[in-house]
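PROTEIN DATA CARD
Card holder: Biliverdin reductase A
Chain length: 287
Origin: Triplophysa tibetana
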Amino acid sequence: MLGSVVVGLGIAGCVRLRELLAPLPASAADKLTIKGFVSRRSLEDQQGVKQISMTEALSRDDIQVAFICTENTNHEEHIRQFLEAGRHVCVEYPMTLSYASAVDLWDLAQEKGLVLHEEHIELLTPDFKQLKKDIVGKTLEEGTLHFTGGSLKPDFGFPSFSGIARLTWLVDLFGNLTVTSASLVEEKEKKYMKMTAHLLTQQQKPLTWIEERGPGLGRVKHVNFRFQDVTITELPAGQREPVGLFMQDMVLFGKKLQEDVPAEELQAEKNRILHCLELADRIRQLS
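Structure generated from the sequence above:
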């Protein structure tokens, strides 16, 4: 069994805590056991799990794994602390708020022989899985992915990083991309912002990614993907699975800890994550 600590007890941290207390039986996640949680707030026991200090989490011999669920701006520091302490790390996306720091952290994990896993449950959703199946063999002509949602706090980072799940969708669907231009409109007094990024596929087909955030905006993905023979304007429903998204992600992380994921899959995932972070950096520079 691998002792685990959850760092940060927001929405994602509470889900991680719950999943660690009841992992999927006979799965790779079943080899993880919760030893405590870390929070900047002083909290009572959570579902029977005790709060511990960061110092304790970094030094205890019975803790080998850290789940980083803090604000985006703190991810890099916490990942580095736990890697330096010899712990495997699972972190909610985005891993960091810059491409260069992500490369540095991955090099550190490799140097120490540790697993560094960035969560991407958006790739596990039924609508995405079905969409990916639906476009197999189709030739893209142009496309738009427009995401709307409520206002974000400053510690979420620049929108190309806080919204990297949508960028990951585009890269996973259409391959590596190039940023041609980007813009950001902000009305801080209204807590409103709209980022627009123009991208090209390797086949020189245009894609537009829009992140729009503000009070009262519903959390919705609007798509318009035009292929040679069909245009997709709504996400497919997909088949709901009995295992939740965070548990699916935890099982994948557990398989990595058991060295049960092929090397080529690990490399492809690393390449995709770093490519998306590099694109996010470029979008920030151009906006």
